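Much of our argument rests on the idea that a fold can be written as discrete symbols. In the encoding step, the backbone of a single protein was reduced to a row of integers, each denoting a local shape. We regard such an encoding as a compact summary of how the chain folds. The record that follows shows the chain in one-letter code together with its fold in token form:
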Amino acid sequence: MAEAAGGREQPAAGRAPPDAAHRAEEEPEPASLDAGGRRRERRSGVSAVGTAERFPGGTLGPAAAPDPDACLLEAAKATPRRSSIIKDPSNQKCGRKKTVSFSSMPSEKKISSASDCISFMQAGCELKKVRPNSRIYNRFFTLDPDLQALRWEPSKKDLDKAKLDISAIKEIRLGKNTETFRNNGLADQISEDCALSVIHGENYESLDLVANSADVANIWVSGLRYLVSRSKQPLDLMENSHDTPRFAWLKAVFEAADVDGNGIMLEDTAVELIKKLNPTLKESKIRLKFKEIQKSKEKLTTRVTKEEFCEAFSELCTRPEVYFLLVQISKNKEYLDANDLMLFLEAEQGVTHITEEMCLDIIRRYELSEEGRLKGFLAIDGFTQYLLSSECDIFDPEHKKIVQDMTQPLSHYYINASHNTYLIEDQLRGPADINGYVRALKMSCRSIELDVCDGPDNEPIICNRNNMTSPLAFRNVIEVINKLAFFASEYPLILCLGNHCSVQQQKVVVQHMKRIFGNKLYTEAPLSSEAYLPSPEKLKMKIIVKGKKLPCNQDVLEGEVTDEDEEAEISRRLSEDFSREPKLIWLCKELSDLVSLCKSIQYKDFETSMKSQNYWEMCSFSEAEASRIANEYPEDFVNYNKKFLSRVYPSAMRIDSSNLNPQDFWNCGCQIVAMNYQTPGPMMDLHTGWFLQNGGCGYVLRPSVMRDEVSYFSANTKGIVPGVSPQVLHVKIISGQNFPKPKGACAKGDVIDPYVCIEIHGIPADCTEQRTKTVQQNSDNPIFDESFEFQINLPELAMIRFVVLDDDYIGDEFIGQYTIPLECLQPGYRHIPLRSFVGDIMEHVTLFVHIAITNRSGGGKAQKRSLSVRIGKKAREYTMLRNTGLKVIDDIFKLAVHPLREATDMRENMQNAMVSVKELCGLPPIASLKQCILTLSSRLVSSDNAPSVALCMKDTFPYLEPLGTVPDVQKKVLAAYDLMIQESRVLIETADTTHDKIVQCQKAGMEFHEELHNLGTKEGLKGRKLSKAIESFAWNITVLKGQGDLLKNAKNEALENMKQIQLACLSCGLSKAGSGQADAKAKRGLEAIQEKDTGDENGRL
């Protein structure tokens, strides 16, 4: 702390010059002005550092002096990137290269206790003071030595008046959560993570500040909260810091290892002991810390005392970001009790049905000290272990099981597929290898390829026809396939048979397959009475052969069929006559009969396919052909894939076996996108990540808008998908742990400068990328503390990829990545286990993040916390129905216009009311309603600690009734709360009626589905006009179905909100004092809400 304190004595090091003290507080320091005299906003890609002190990644150290004449808008510097959706590719991943520094690194002093926070605050630092008039002033803030007041200078006030008494502070808020921040013209340029507000006085006035980094903001918030919570108790923090439960545990650990009982041990022993407690620490770092501690005490020895051991462990093993979180959720204690943990799990982590006993069980499993386990509290080390455990993994454990409907037709699923499965190297030179099949099948691949050729001794072989040096016996390959076919998944396996054999060896192929696969082989003839393929559920444990088939009307033993394999396509591409007809090959009847559900045919065009293709026939598309079709006929491609299977394979030009982007073809509904498993990289990351969902079974159900017979979806959608509610994804990248040095990077030694890229993959409207700032020379625990926001228009097709890179002049080098479907994200504070370039999980290498998801207009999944955006009625977007040009149908759809507007208004009104309550409670939009009630309950307390409002159930809705005089500032909050309950009530009570009207219009419209062509002909529509009418009809049906579902979900959310509010009120004691009758009535109300909820689920909605 000495460096920070010393910085205050020199005005140039961050404090304003002495003559500035006489300047009026409201007069801004000279700022950069443009030619017109207006203040010029400055934004920088570099974090604001070097004002009073620097605190990168939780460390304190000296810093360079700033220019006091150029820092009016330095608050903007704290935001290296604006937290907004970036759609302009030129704005994505802005270059920010590091600078070279030849100075030595300062010694690190981490924040690991309230004492450290208070020491920092007493030393003081520069903060930006934000005023309602959109002005920002630099002020130097300090905490009085007696811990009784917060002071700042320069100020026009007397020194005794430029202060705020700790006893007057009501709340401390982190983030831009006051009217001043919301209405400030520069708010967008101020980082959410660097903003804080001190609420004080009976009128809840706000002192709004911006720190130069998120770490500094966290120090002030944690320190002030600690002081306020203990304002009525004598504080002697410095002396008592060694009396904490953590210190007692560390002493016990030391004493157990101190065999001589002298209170001292060899440094080697101490190092081993800390390594045992925290295996991720490097030995060199532990030894350096001991030397630093001993140097500060002016001693040099190879022995370590008990106090030095405890100090070293605390500084090395305390992650500041986890400490700040613990203090925040523990109500400013340095440990969590069962109630704190319960609230954290419910409000932050989205865990439902949590009990006190479950929390105590977590404490018993993760708390390291015996005292903590017995008394039921979780200290910083146990809490860190819990956050790192699989229980706080980012991947929702529900999706590690089969969670999707597996009874849909096979064509309604994405299928995990491999290309040239027999290869483990590139397709030009790579030999065939049995391990290619082993790897693919163990990764739940459900479509594998076998290129079969004639072999010696009448035994067929599988080989790379570009490299015949190491062929595989066909018999051996299918024996391995038979053994592992259902090792990772019990759902059907498709064998894509590339037949290059003579008729004689084809018969050997058939004999081997029948003998080895036995009754697993699916050979039942498809039923012409059916319209769709069987389901994965019906085809469990079956092996399906895809290949050519002789015409069913020819009763011959063998015949000619077209050769449409990939090699034939390559030949045609390389020949001068690319348009020549494909060559013919001979096929024996026995092999033809093995092909049942996946008969290979040649694609001509969609019109021909929709008229004459049978559901059991499928086409294979080269990457180039599929890309052309996707661009020219995106809607037709989606409609085609509702009924038929499509296989897409990589371009013949990919001689290095690089991979195509599977997302481009998944967007069109293509089920089988074949990937080169042997080639790692971003495309394989997407593929692997995508098929982690649905229990990793190799089948993923497509979104309903891409399955329903009558629905509209275009793969090239640039905006909102009709009938689908967009979601907002908020990601806060907090910190990284134990990043390894990039492989092959040798120029910089062990030093890396990491940054994080967040990529969104999905439909074109959703694809974007943002990145954090670069953290210089920190691989152990770099602190990023940056928030990002993404709008996702089709959540079911979206994936998020976290990539950690080393910022380097020559080229940014890969450190690790993790790819996950949006649907599998868990909300709250999560650790992401990073994977290496080849896809392996790297031990102890993680990214610490916070996730929140919601619908764009609020709402969202009940367990994924609301993140709302208020939309005024005038700016409200209504999903419009289209005119088909068919009068009888358009008259039906016109009846739905009013109900659709009604449904949108009810949803938006409820959401806007929720946003108002959160704002007035001083909470961020991502807060839960339970957190709102907790905040309210702490305010609505009289001088004798009795609640000034009580829960009052009116017709099963939880109103709050004043018990006496309520201050005006709280009346405003209660009025907003009443409005939220009222809007929720309107939605709950009228949703059924509106929903029925929408559904009736949908059903009435669907009655004309079969007659569309006839109606169009009668109206004189043909060609493109008729197609447009059919497309508009599908659009309208999609909108009606989607809006009905959104209204149904909004009602269920409103019911859940009422239940959560009532539970929170009861747990906070907001029921009339001494009234058992009131409690009983409230509980009856809760039961009524639950019954209403259950009834609706079983009934119409």
Observations:
- The two ends are 61 Å apart (CA to CA).
- The chain has a mean pLDDT of 80.
- Residues 1024-1067 form the longest helix (44 residues).
- The CA atoms of residues 760 and 800 lie 5 Å apart.
